[in-house]
């Protein structure tokens, strides 16, 4: 399926304080590729993304027990894309997760980082990735060991840059502290969750990192597992054919916060509908554009099971400039979760 | 021979201040593998250990003139174990020891470290070891040369970590001094002898290292060459079929300390018998559990010539929690060799 | 075509504060090789240069979309020159420029430096270049990333030295600042334009760099696109068969400065004719010798489409010593563009 | 020819402040191997040396235009010696010297060090040398470039250590200054001329280096081109079949110092004859033992064209202990060239 004619021009952003450029929208393999999406569909999605100007494909050793890397690697070969036109990332921490012995096949020890990278590159059938992430912080392995091991991957040409995912701000600062002390390369990017409903980490906790070490962000769940698309405005249907795993996320939310809070949240999201309508865009596009409006976001990672979904999401790129200060203020009023500004001086 | 049903769950510990996890019980090739144990028995032992959750196998270039590395490498291939599920260590210092020209084939020069590592990996038929040890201190080679050479092995991917064996505390501190000065990786682990009869090095001399540089310990002879198993409670039988080399160790002890002292020691060990009986464990299990009770011990290295011995020893893991402060105090009273506490402040 | 009998001995100069020696005249592939010069002519030119003592051949990934590297590499193979007798340089920044996606295939990110180097070496069919240049400054990529990436090329044996082209003095100083801070290798050479008409950058702006970091210069356009050869003394002929691209340069000049200024410049250049005649050399030789008279110039890069042109230019080497202080002063009087001396103390 | 029965046990010394051990007598390829000694004789000499306990073989890229490396490499293969039992050194500076273009094939630039090392290893047919020397100081290449390039050889596994030859003390100190500043490895050894007639460099100029940086010495011409063997006690025979090149050395001496001075020197040397006779050793053995008596000398490099010569020289090892303080004082009285002691404090 060819890209629609009204597809906007993709925009590219530097990945934090680095010279690497990534498309504002990137495609991730979480849950979908190698998982509940069949391989033919995966190929179709990756092609639609590439044809839309997406150059950044995100994976992890743990996604679908390693199968996500395999199928994404196959797509690259299948379409004969040039390696230098792509930005490929994967993540180490969980091992291949399903069935493997967790001892030494998990975490950020030098052993798992080196063994995990070799295994990921073999699955991807690539010589190197552009960005290798620490998928979680490992609070039992000394930070110095982890920083050294990621630099080993860079020095041996297996990765060009490294980053973190789901780390706390002080952990990122510690990693930079060791990198600086030892003359090594620090993590250029963090991958947190970021969307209209989850703002504190990106807008408050990380605020000083952007200035001090130039952390870039590739954010996941920009649509909050679909909640912000508006498709649950009448609640979650009982017999939804919707992917079981996503429902599980929402059920987890229920368990933690209660159904009542959930319904309040849905009501709040529904108030965003008229704003999207006024701008002539879908609620998804509004949510995605809102994420991209944050200049610290280098790329918003979307998941997709069809080319249509990808084209739909890419349209959000054109909506970014529509988000005027007035509209952003109106959205803040509805969301009522804007973190306080970090006071710099007293 | 399959593991017995009552085999306890293996526990894993971090190897000092590193992210590498080793089984509390590890299997060493000293004297046995490639030596007086035939290869089929070696394979059986390694399989029994692996099936018991042992992930850490210890070797040295000098063990049986290099044959220990060969047979342990064969076992890994034979059973198709995944490399990432194993922690393999070997040690450099003595060369292959039997018949080789000692000039430059011994010690911790850059030459022997680099040439010895290549030879060990070839014998093991592996691409890398997890831990490479300096088997002894080399007081003639400058420490800086040794620290640089072990880092060379790590940088070239032939080893993931390095450690020391039979070094003095101040030598370990000197190695760290050069590592720090040059931004290199220091030794994460020391391998000393440690058991109820030999406590001073581990409990007194190394006390400050644990805090300052996070030295982990893999200890050998946890049963003091079998003395602590209680099997010599009536003395050493004249025509013992017991491995000749072990007897030689004990004879050496006699020469240094005299038969009278030896008999005193046996009497002392015999007093531990009722404590083991009260806990419902063997004397060996008591001795091994006592070693593992020390939180600075990452792993106790056992030697074994049969699967039964391995299962027997692994049972000690479950006995560790039985060693209450009261029981430990009672044992200290019998051993009468508890080193003084290191006074931290005056 | 064999070198003429009166060809002077080539001279060699150190490339800035390095131990690498380059011929005073070097041959560049810009516009010509792989471009408007046919390959047989390129081979002939390179042979004439080599036979004249030229050891330095300059290229760039962008020259003729990569074809310049291909044909220059073919010449090296064709004539069986020994690699150690050659100094080969290429430049990274623009990608292969014609038709390639500019995202990540341009600039001085770690990604493009590593991917671009591999692609250049493949086109050149060489294992390494002697000098790899940053073809332009990249003001969006952090300088530290760029300095580290060029050092990665040196550490992995793909290049022996690195340099810059068309950088400002403060950018070169910044690169050295990061190199010094991190214990890395700084850029030894800058490649600017330098000729009688363009003096400020080399004679004023860079003045302190020569002393502080020892920057060497390989200069391009020593004849100012042919203007200084005197062949346009009567203006640019309307139907010139002269290479279209060079005319475009001059037309660009017109657009920026106006035809009147251009005619003034031609009149000024014409005043150099009698000086050349007095010395018994061509106007080209005078202009080239004048560039080489500057001791900070390591090599003047010429372009040529025939062996004759090369021999003609090489003759300038013998003219350098003819440029006495008196003659240089006379030339300064005509050019009227001598930058002020950098005052060192007040 | 098998070693004589009275051949003394070879002794080994550490190469300066390093962990590398070299035989007190080493065999060099200068002038002889690949040169005026035929290859079969070279093999015989190397075997005799090896059988005598010599483990250190010294070469240089320039010796016999590279042929010395070739034939010494062939001997190693021919006799199947184990690489770890040998200490092989070669030297870079002069290129292969005979007929090669000197531009960039000479000196201590990064280019020549890297290209020269590759060429030497190819000629030697080895993966690495133990020691790579800078054969002369290069006063035109920045010292930092040279220090970095030799470390590059070590980091890439092509050499284990590096040293200098014919450098001044302050140049060695400068090399260490850059090594220290950059955290790199400094030169562990210097190769100067040292014999009874040339003492100043080793005994005076280098005196502080031994203490400060631990410089070891491998010395050449311990017999002063044969002068100290006593075989010219009646002057140089006119029609000597003695190797032409050695005569040229002596002729050079004549030119610089005059025949009269030469005859004085011969007379002085003749006074050593009775001392040797008293000790029951040859004059050569006395001269060689005298060199080895200096504890800063790690090895004395001899040249030899026959197995007999080697066995003869090796005997000097046993003579070292015969040189009592009294005898040394008597020798000093004859030589009358003992440098003043370096005054340490005032």
UniProtKB/TrEMBL annotation, chains A, B, C, D:
SUPFAM superfamilies: NAD(P)-linked oxidoreductase. It comes from the Eukaryota. Residues 25-335 form the NADP-dependent oxidoreductase domain. Keywords: NADP, Oxidoreductase. GO terms for molecular function: oxidoreductase activity. Gene3D superfamilies: NADP-dependent oxidoreductase domain. The keyword Oxidoreductase applies. Belongs to the shaker potassium channel beta subunit family. This is NADP-dependent oxidoreductase domain-containing protein.
């Amino acid at each position: 399926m060819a890209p629609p004619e009204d597809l906007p021009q993709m925009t590219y952003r530097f990945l934090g304080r680095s010279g690497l450029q990534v498309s504002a929208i990137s495609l991730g393999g979480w849950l979908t590729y190698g998982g509940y999406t069949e391989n033919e569909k995966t190929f179709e999605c990756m092609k639609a993304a590439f044809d839309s100007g997406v150059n950044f494909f995100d994976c992890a050793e743990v996604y679908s027990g390693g199968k996500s890397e395999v199928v994404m690697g196959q797509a690259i070969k299948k379409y004969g894309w040039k390696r230098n036109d792509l930005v490929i990332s994967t993540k180490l921490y969980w091992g291949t997760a399903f069935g493997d012995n967790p001892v030494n096949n998990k975490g950020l020890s030098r052993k798992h980082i080196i063994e995990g990278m070799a295994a990921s590159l073999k699955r991807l059938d690539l010589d190197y990735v552009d960005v290798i992430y620490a998928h979680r912080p490992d609070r039992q392995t000394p930070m110095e060991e982890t920083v050294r091991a990621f630099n080993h991957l860079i020095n041996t040409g297996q990765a060009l840059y490294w980053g973190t995912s789901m780390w706390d701000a002080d952990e990122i600062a510690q990693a930079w502290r060791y990198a600086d002390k030892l003359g090594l390369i620090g993590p250029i990017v963090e991958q947190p969750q970021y969307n209209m409903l989850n703002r504190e980490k990106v807008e408050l906790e990380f605020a000083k990192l952007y200035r001090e070490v130039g952390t870039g962000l590739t954010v996941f769940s920009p649509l909050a597992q679909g909640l912000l698309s508006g498709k649950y405005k009448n609640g979650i249907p009982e017999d939804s054919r919707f992917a079981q795993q996503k429902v599980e996320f929402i059920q987890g939310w229920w368990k933690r916060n209660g159904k009542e809070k959930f319904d309040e949240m849905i009501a709040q999201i529904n108030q965003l509908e008229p704003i999207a309508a006024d701008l002539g865009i879908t609620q998804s596009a509004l949510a995605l554009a809102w994420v991209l409006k944050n200049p610290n976001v280098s790329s918003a990672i979307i998941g997709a099971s069809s080319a249509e979904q990808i084209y739909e999401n890419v349209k959000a790129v054109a909506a970014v400039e529509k988000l005027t200060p007035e509209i952003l203020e109106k959205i803040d009023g509805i969301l009522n979760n804007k973190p306080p500004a970090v006071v710099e001086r007293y």
